[in-house]
Amino acid sequence: MTVAVRSFAKINIGLEIGPRRADGFHALRTVYQTVALPDRLRVEVARGTGIEIHSNDPRVPLDEANTCWRLAELAMKALKARRRVKIQIEKGLPVQGGLGGASSNAVATLLAIERAVGKRLPAEERLRLAAEVGSDLPLFLIGGTVLGVGRGEEVYPLEDLPALDCVIVTPDIGISTPQAFAELDNFREKTGKLTVRASSDKLGGSSHALSAWLSGSSTGVPAKSSGDRAEALLLDLVHAGIENDFESVVFPQHPELRLVKRALEREGAGYASLSGSGSAVYGLFRSREQARKAAKRLKAEGISAVATRTLTRREYWKRMFE
User: What gap in Å lies between CA 219 and CA 233, rounded to an integer?
Assistant: First the structure.
């Protein structure tokens, strides 16, 4: 049986990175948000054994290094299914772009396998297997607006933000997340900035701003519509200084990305940020028309930009299977 599935991207609204832990990982705090930019997968489960991967993008690994391979292997074992799995990945998302493409692909593969086999793993087992493969896989088992803590794998569904219009710029640059972490550690050692924001008052401010916004009381005035709430969120993100800590090391190494962020702000983004460790940079806009005009102007300047929207949890699951 063959199952077609969409594999949606994510952005990070704020990313606070703590010191390296004893296990080698860093303590993180972030708000993940799924967006309506997908890869497309076709997963076939048939007679035989083994795993086979194909992709239209030569940068996608076709062996055990692929997160789809690793999660498919774990899933088939957990489902007690001995069959051959063939995965066709049609990439629309960048590789090493900070949009969670590889992680989303893996979770989409897991869900497609369950549908093809006719069995479903318990939610706790799904999350455990996903976290075993990678830190930002579990968020894609929730979708919508998600709080990520621990090393990012400990996830909690938040009250969904309404659909927000955004522009995502995907420069032709691949950034290694492990390398970005190492460079951030070195930067903090050299500058003496060992007390990071994750343990400072800034964290409390960020959490308060998002919590207040989610409860509809961010400006002290009840929001009358989703548009009002979106406007309040953009103001609060800026006023609270919610940032992505990777920008401190990624932007100096890739100054063109800082210019992209400034270009988004110049085009009217109420809030702009690097996503994950990059290289994708996004801007949140107050209307669909504003986002579309901004993307059009950026593309005219030779910048790879696309206008899209964030996905609520309900929309995420509704649009996953074709």
Answer: 9
Q: 143 and 100 in contact (C-beta within 8 Å)?
A: no
Of 1-10, 71-80, 103-112, 238-247, the one with minimum mean pLDDT is: 238-247
- Write the pLDDT tens digit of every residue in 246-262: 999 999 999 999 999 99
In this prediction, residue 197 has a pLDDT band, given cuts at 50, 70 and 90, of very low
Known catalytic residues are 10, 136
For 165-311, CATH gives 3.30.70.890
**C-alpha distance across the termini of the chain, in Å:** 15
Contacts 24+ apart (CB under 8 A), 124-131: 125/78, 127/155, 129/71, 129/74, 129/75, 129/78, 130/71, 130/106
Residue 239 tokens read as 């006023």
Please say whether the structural domain 2-160+314-318 has been given the CATH code 3.30.230.10.
yes
Domain ranges of the chain: 2-160+314-318, 165-311
Token pair of 223, please?
């929001």
CA distance 126 to 5: 17
Q: Do the Cβ atoms of 134 and 147 come closer than 8 Å?
A: no
- Cis ω on the peptide bond leading into residue 279 (within 30° of 0)? yes
- Block residue for tokens 């409860």: 215
| CA atoms of 68 and 57, how far apart (whole Å) | 15
- The model's pLDDT over 14-31, given as tens digits with 9 standing for 90+, comes to 999 998 899 989 999 899
